[in-house]
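Thread: Modeling a multi-component assembly for a lab meeting

Hi all, long-time lurker, first post. My supervisor asked me to bring a structural picture of a complex we are working on to next week's group meeting, and I have zero experience with this. I have the sequence lines for every component (434 residues in total). Could someone generate the structure of the whole assembly? Inputs are pasted exactly as I received them:
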Amino acid sequence: MSHDHAHSHDHPHGSDLSPVEARVRALESLLTEKGYIDPAALDTLVDLYENKVGPHAGARVVARAWVDPAYRVRLLSDATRAIAELGIGGRGGEHMVVVANTPETHNLVVCTLCSCYPWPVLGLPPIWYKAPPYRARAVIDPRGVLAEFGVSIPESTRITVWDSTAETRYMVLPMRPANTEGFSEEALAALVTRDAMIGTGLPDSMPPTAPEMPL
Amino acid sequence: MNGAQDLGGAHGFGPVVPEPNEPVFHAEWERRVFAMAMAMGYTGAWNLDGSRATRESLPPAQYLASSYYEIWLAALEKHVAAAGLATPDELAAGHALEPSKPVMRVLAHDGLEARFRAGFPSSREPAAAARFAVGDPVIARNVHPTGHTRLPRYVRGRRGRVERVDGTFVFPDTNAYGAGENPTWLYTVSFTAQELWGPSGDPGGTVTVAAFEPYLEPA
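Re: Modeling a multi-component assembly
Sure thing. I ran the full set together rather than chain by chain. Output:
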């Protein structure tokens, strides 16, 4: 799109824009013309957070913790540093805390005040995480919320909800699924869903008959 | 502020509705709003806390009726005007009518990924000793500041326990308004679900918040 095009509000194509699209285009044109932003940098930012940063990074962290007990200890005591060992970090994850699910405790992460979420390990949050229903209910009715995700936690398992009210960002370390003995780190990472790292899901399970050593 | 953003414990919003195979962005304009918000934050004309303060200062009816990136867009327009970076006439026109105002820096394509993968820590050196220690019983102050705060309403006046001393961080309540970073101790504080919600609280359940020292008093 040429510079001139962006400014041609009377261009016939302008009428195809919705009101919000027109506002966004006007704002970007204005901020660019003023020299406050560089559209090429915006493209790079979008590419970074749409295509490069995402829950595959968090899955690597979880899989490492499942296979390496010493790493697990480091992860639970200084998550930011342990995650950086894998070359992962950055904006929205400068101050990480990882909380481990156990048979006694299930952890659930929310941001009731806005949308705080551990970007470097999970990417940008899904709409439901940022929307009022989840933000309102995760703290007052966590079991009801989990039920809506199809997750049933035994009555005997206590639920701890982590409300991200400062720059601390939380990631859940789920329990390693049964029947995954001998799995490679890569095969384990493939079982780790985004929701399992928020606490609204569990890792994919493996049937007892699963092959012992998948690729 | 006791605004529409402070949603913890609210009723009536219905079920959580996850979208299967949800894309990161749902429209091209969302991509541009996301990136513009990041890039304008980088100019130093305002900070992350200021962005949050502006978003939550939208009228409650507008906030709740807007999509996430519509909130970002409205706050971005408001912030650009409030910071004197552009006039309302320029925003309406979509092009410059007056000279630019200098900004501290402009986010360039070169080095951008490394910069964002390094992050922008908000931890700072402490100016004083921490007032509370792990295990201390505390009460979240029953305060209702009209400006930006990160103490949600649902814990105010409630008794909790310090679980971790997180360190000292930029204090959002002042930083949001350019009134200084004021490095402040931050604590992870747990509350039982029944302390927060009464008998209807999940038995055995716990909710933790990250609370700055001025939000707390000894129990």
